[in-house]
């Protein structure tokens, strides 16, 4: 268990040091201060849950970035798992605040079915956690993560918990989550571990009736929803879980269930488990006698009856007031309905809604106004204020305080402190903005101010994912990028060029290749690089191409294998480099990318396959030092090698550090890796001879690292992109 640059001159000196050595023990850490680069949420948050025990207390769970708690005093979201080093535990399957004690909260954590899963308990609102590994698998980042809540705390006896498993039926604990056993009488046993790419909904929610709950006595009525075809959608127990009876339900999957303060159960149904497969759905109400009736909003039916209902919330302070929301309503767009008379009448709040995204302008990144949102599965009404409503989308969390009024409903992002994105690539140019990033789903941004949510900048072309970025070393306002597109968007260009530091872009298109001719550049696999003066661009298509006129004309590159990524020298515009992994050779171009030929590469290992990282999102294992011609760094496997003579000779440059990722800074070399049994973020001031750890046990972010780069203008500054907890920048503690 676990508790919780002058540029050229300065850069010419950046990575000079002694010969590499081997350290017997890990060195002492260098204190760093870490901060998120502000975007403001950015990813899918499957649900938000208010505490019924204290006003202003709420929790948010995400699919790959951990959980957050709302701090009402300081008015920001507090990340609760930055000290967690277990990757899988950043995928939160469910979250349940104790209904009586506001200090106690539980989480079910597990990213995928074949990764470690645990139930976490905190007695200090998530500051520290007791972690209990469990025998049932979870899927916090699998299809169906918007179902729930699967984890429930008995309001009568808070030491009793139930958990609805995706794969293994219903489970319970009678000692506050320390030990778990399967509920023997529950009729749905589960389907076991899924096949690859197969998703199980399983027991989708557990809802315990709070009426009549007496301290120390276990509640008797328990509802369990099932999102498994042919297994019965809804089950009820009136004896604390010993026996179960099937309830009336539509021929759909039970997605979300909530019991109000009177003991009335409200269920959202869908024909898919979400977030992208729901075609139809329904809303049902179940009275105290257990009988159910269809209360689906009528205008949902008349508008096409499209999309499932994965958002359901009750107003505990106003019985009979309920909100529901759709998911995958592609025709009319997703919306939210509210009833104040137990489902007799519903009002579509979408028509009255306005959204102010001035604090999160990145939400306009697709070139359209802020709509109601997509992938809406989280929906909550403040138990102490029926006018305070929040819902989650695939990119943000919206909230309003005006749901009770009769005029326009004003929504705004409720995201201060939340950074939940996947960073694919980044650069810190020698001029212009300090940071340019490539994101998954959100394209990427030019970060001129690291503390403010950025304006949309990666347009023309718009790419959902940015896979590679490069800048011209002597003309840093020239930036190029490549990426991939959503399947339902027109495929016209997947490469872009900017000559003003990323403020504006023009598409770059490579001629068709092969027989029959095909646009190989549109597959998202082709990386792009730019010469030091910005005049030449190389694109690693099946037949690598070079242009010197901004893409108006192209010529095939000689001597360069297809799909081989190139790296431009940051000083000499005639020089490019590449690793021929299959031939085990380092290649160089001295004619501005027109042709490549092998260079000696003395000192490199014979096997260079590890230096050719696979996949379009993989970072280059070969980097050129800014401000220094012919200065190269190459990662082969877990070892670094350095050349100061254009690749003629290399020397080992990682010492005892086992390297996963590395980046170059003004005066330092940075890496993600393991030394002395400690995995973390490391810095070297002597060309990799020795290393100092610069992260700490409070900043682990699940160990989900994607990219690292130093700042060529600011000594000590490093940028780290994670897979789920956003983008960070770190500075020596004494530097700020």
The level-1 CATH class of the largest domain: Mainly Beta
Number of strands: 56
User: Which CATH architecture of the largest domain would you pick?
Assistant: 7 Propeller
Biggest sheet strand order reads 26-30-29-28-27
At the fold tier of CATH, the topology name of the largest domain is Methylamine Dehydrogenase, Chain H
CATH superfamily of the largest domain: YVTN repeat-like/Quinoprotein amine dehydrogenase
Number of domains: 2
Q: Gap between N and C termini, in Å?
A: 36 Å
> Cα-atom Rg, whole angstroms?
27 Å
Structure classification? mainly beta
Helical proportion?
A: under 10%
Task: Quote the beta fraction.
Answer: 25-35%
Let me know the largest β-sheet.
5 strands, mixed
Principal-axis shape: elongated
Low-confidence spans:
1-24
Mean pLDDT: 93
Walkthrough of the structure:
A hairpin with a 7-residue loop joins strand 27 and strand 28. The chain has 736 residues and is mainly beta. It folds into two domains: 344 residues, YVTN repeat-like/Quinoprotein amine dehydrogenase (Methylamine Dehydrogenase, Chain H); 374 residues, Methylamine Dehydrogenase, Chain H, CATH 2.130.10.10. The protein is built from two helices and 56 strands. The strands form 14 sheets. The chain has a five-stranded mixed β-sheet, with no helix packed on it. The longest helix is centred in the first third of the chain and has 6 residues.
What features would you highlight for this structure?
736 residues; mainly beta; Methylamine Dehydrogenase, Chain H; 2 domains; 5-stranded mixed sheet; 4-stranded antiparallel sheet; 2 helices; 1% helix; signal
């Amino acid at each position: 268990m676990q508790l919780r640059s002058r540029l050229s001159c300065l850069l010419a000196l950046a990575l000079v040091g002694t010969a590499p050595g081997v350290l017997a023990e890990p060195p002492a850490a260098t204190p760093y201060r870490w901060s998120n680069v502000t975007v403001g949420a950015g990813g899918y948050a499957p649900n938000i849950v208010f505490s019924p025990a204290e006003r202003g207390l709420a929790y948010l769970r995400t699919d790959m970035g951990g959980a957050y708690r709302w701090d009402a005093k300081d008015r920001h979201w507090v990340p609760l798992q930055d000290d967690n080093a277990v990757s899988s535990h950043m995928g939160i399957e469910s979250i349940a605040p104790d209904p009586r004690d506001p200090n106690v909260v539980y989480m079910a954590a597990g990213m995928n079915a074949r990764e470690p899963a645990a139930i976490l308990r905190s007695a200090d609102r998530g500051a520290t956690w007791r972690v209990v590994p469990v025998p049932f698998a979870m899927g916090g980042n699998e299809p169906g993560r918007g179902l729930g809540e699967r984890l429930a705390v008995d309001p009568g006896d808070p030491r009793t918990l139930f958990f609805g498993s995706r794969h293994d039926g219903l489970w319970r604990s009678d000692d506050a989550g320390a030990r778990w056993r399967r509920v023997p009488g529950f009729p749905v046993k589960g389907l076991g571990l899924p096949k690859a790419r197969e998703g199980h909904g399983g027991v989708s929610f557990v809802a315990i009736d709070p009426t009549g709950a007496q301290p120390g006595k276990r509640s008797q009525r328990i509802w369990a929803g099932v999102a498994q075809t042919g297994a019965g959608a809804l089950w009820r127990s009136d004896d604390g879980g010993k026996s179960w009876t099937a309830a009336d339900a539509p021929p759909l999957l039970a997605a979300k269930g909530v019991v109000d303060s009177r003991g009335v159960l409200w269920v959202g149904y869908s024909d898919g488990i979400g977030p992208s497969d729901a075609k139809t759905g329904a809303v049902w109400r179940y009275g105290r006698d257990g009988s159910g009736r269809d209360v689906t909003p009528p205008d949902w039916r008349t508008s096409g009856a499209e999309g499932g209902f994965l958002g359901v919330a009750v107003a505990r302070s106003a019985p009979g007031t309920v909100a529901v929301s759709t998911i995958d309503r592609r025709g009319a767009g997703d919306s939210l309905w509210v009833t104040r008379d137990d489902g007799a009448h519903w009002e579509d709040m979408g028509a009255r809604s306005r959204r102010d995204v001035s604090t999160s302008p990145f939400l306009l990144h697709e070139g359209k106004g802020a709509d109601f949102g997509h992938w809406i599965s989280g929906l909550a009404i403040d138990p102490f204020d029926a006018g305070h409503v929040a819902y989650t989308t695939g990119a943000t969390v919206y909230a309003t305080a005006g749901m009770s009024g009769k005029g326009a409903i004003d929504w705004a992002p409720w995201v201060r402190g939340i950074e939940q994105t996947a960073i694919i690539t980044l650069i810190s140019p020698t001029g212009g903005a300090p940071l340019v990033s490539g994101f998954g789903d959100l394209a990427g941004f030019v970060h001129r101010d690291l503390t403010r949510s950025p304006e949309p900048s990666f347009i023309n072309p718009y790419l959902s994912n940015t896979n590679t970025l490069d800048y011209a070393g002597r003309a840093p306002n020239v930036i190029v990028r490549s990426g991939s597109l959503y399947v339902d968007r027109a495929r016209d260009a997947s490469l872009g060029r900017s000559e003003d530091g990323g403020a504006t872009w023009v598409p770059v298109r490579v001629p068709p290749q092969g027989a029959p001719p095909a646009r190989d550049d549109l597959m998202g696999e082709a990386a792009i690089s730019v010469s030091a003066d910005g005049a030449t661009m190389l694109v690693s298509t099946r037949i690598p191409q070079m242009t010197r006129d901004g893409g108006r004309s192209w010529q095939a590159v000689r001597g360069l294998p297809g799909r081989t990524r190139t790296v431009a020298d940051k000083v000499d515009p005639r020089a490019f480099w590449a690793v021929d992994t299959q031939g085990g050779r380092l290649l160089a171009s001295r004619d501005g990318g027109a042709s490549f030929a092998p260079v000696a590469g003395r000192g490199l290992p014979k096997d260079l396959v590890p230096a050719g990282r696979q996949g379009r999102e993989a970072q280059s294992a070969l980097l050129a030092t800014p401000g220094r011609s012919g200065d190269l760094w190459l990662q082969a496997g877990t070892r670094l090698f350095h050349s100061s003579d254009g690749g003629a000779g290399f020397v080992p440059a990682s010492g005892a550090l086992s390297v996963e990722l590395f980046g170059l800074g003004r005066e330092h070399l940075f890496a993600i890796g393991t030394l002395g049994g400690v995995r973390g973020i490391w810095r070297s001031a002597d060309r990799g001879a020795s290393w100092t750890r610069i992260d700490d046990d409070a900043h682990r972010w699940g160990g989900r690292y994607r990219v690292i780069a130093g700042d060529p203008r600011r000594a000590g500054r490093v940028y780290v992109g994670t897979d789920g907890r956003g983008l960070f920048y770190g500075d020596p503690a004494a530097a700020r």
